[in-house]
Each structure stands twice: as structure tokens, then as C-alpha cells.
Amino acid sequence: MRIVLLGAPGSGKGTQGKKLAEQYGIPQISTGDLLRAAVAAETPLGKRARVAMDAGQLVSDDVVVGLIRERLNEADTANGFILDGFPRNIVQAEALDVMLNEIGKPLQAALHIDVDFDILMKRLTGRRTCESCGQMYNIDTSPPKAEGRCDKCGGRLVQRADDNEETISKRLKVYESQTMPLIAYYRDQGKLHTVKGVGDIDDIYTSIAAELEGVQ
Ligand code: AMP
After folding, report:
1. What sign for the dihedral angle of Cα 59, 63, 66, 70?
2. Which of 18, 45, 58, 94 best tests ligand 1's pocket when mutated (most atoms within 8 Å of CB)?
3. Is 171 a catalytic residue?
4. What's the pTM?
5. Which CATH number fits domain 2-115+178-212: 3.40.50.9100, 1.10.3720.10, 3.40.50.300, 3.40.50.150?
6. CB 13 within 8 A of CB 5
7. What residues line ligand 1, using a CB cutoff of 6 Å?
8. pLDDT tens for each residue of 153-195
9. pLDDT at 118 over 90
10. Theoretical Cys-Cys bridge with 162: which of 7, 167, 199, 202, CB 3.0 to 4.6 Å?
């Protein structure tokens, strides 16, 4: 399955993408994760990306399109992929369409995880991630059993540098102005599927699985 996940920061794309990746046995590719790895490794690309990321703005289209192009060339994408956080604007969506049409493997679905904006702020300020295995928690709604430690692997839980109130509001504004138009873009292509992203994580996943049944 070749699919993109659409949704505001905090809508659950990462969490639900992980589940889809497990079910379908295909990689979840997150441009945010790829960029954070480049920032941590202090590569030239990472150093450039950091400024935009810390400001809650989008990294330049050339950089992220280049990252995705390289990643989609890897062998593990042969049976499909889940794109999480890419595309973020129309230019990127068009570049992706061109890339996939060139290899005769067009996108099959865009899954929009819909969450009201007032819920997103709370989710994002409480969000914590295990620095070892990437498991996500929320200190308000789904806390770990032991404070600051991952239930799965015991790793340290950390807060993303851009999960502070000021940067979060900027990221939500960027989503509204640049990414939301993709909903109409994929609707026009007949590829849009929408689920409500509120409630229990497993229940949301059940709606996603039902919505994607038949997409092959
Ligand atoms: P995310 O983890 O998806 O919330 O992304 C974190 C940050 O990485 C975003 O706020 C952007 O600065 C940058 N980023 C991630 N994906 C993209 C993309 N497709 N285009 C531009 N910037 C991106």
C-alpha cells in the first residue's frame, strides 16, 4: 500500500502510522524523524533544517523532496510505504505525484486524521517520546507507568524541542495555511479518506483499518 497521512501536528499520524506499518509490513517514513536525525547528527542539511524547525516553519521543499526521493529508492519500499508528515504543501504533493508516476506506482490513498484545533494544543504540550524506541506518551492522557521512562524499553522520555506553546501555535498556523489545501487536492484525485482522530488509540485504528479496507 502506498499512502500518505494527512493531519495537523498532534493528530496522531505518528502513532497510527506505526500501527499501519506493523499491520502491512511496510515502512513508515516521517520527514520530521529524518530531519531530526540530521539535526542530531549535525550534518550540513541538519544545520540548515534546524533554523526552520525551531521556528515552527517548513524546511525548504528541495531539502524534503530530496530526502523523500532518496528514501523511496531504498529496497524496503518495494511493497509500499506510509508517508507521515510529507507532503506538507501543494508543491511537495505535486513533486511526489511526479516521482511516483515516473516509476508507475502512484499513490493509492491519503488518510486524513481529523482533530479539532483546541485538542491539538493540549496533546502537543503533553507529548513525550522515548529517545530509544520512539514510543509516544502523553503526560496528561496516556502517561508511562514510571515517570520519565518508557514502558516498553525503559528508555528516557524526552520532549521535542518544537513542542513548546509558542512554536506549536506557529506550526498549527502553517498547517492551516499550507497543508490543509492538500485535503482538497487528494479529494479531487478521489484518494481522500477521513477519520476522526479522537478517543481511544485502538478505536481510532479500527476506524482507519475499516476506511482503508479495499485500498490495494
Ligand atoms: P513533524 O515531526 O512532522 O511535526 O515535523 C517537525 C518539523 O520538521 C516541522 O515543523 C517542519 O519544520 C519540519 N518538516 C517535517 N516534514 C516537513 C515537510 N514535509 N516539509 C517541510 N518541513 C517539514
Report:
1. negative
2. 58
3. yes
4. 0.91
5. 3.40.50.300
6. yes
7. 9, 31-32, 35, 52-53, 56-59, 64, 85-88, 92, 162, 171
8. 999 999 988 999 899 999 999 999 999 999 999 999 999 999 9
9. no
10. 167
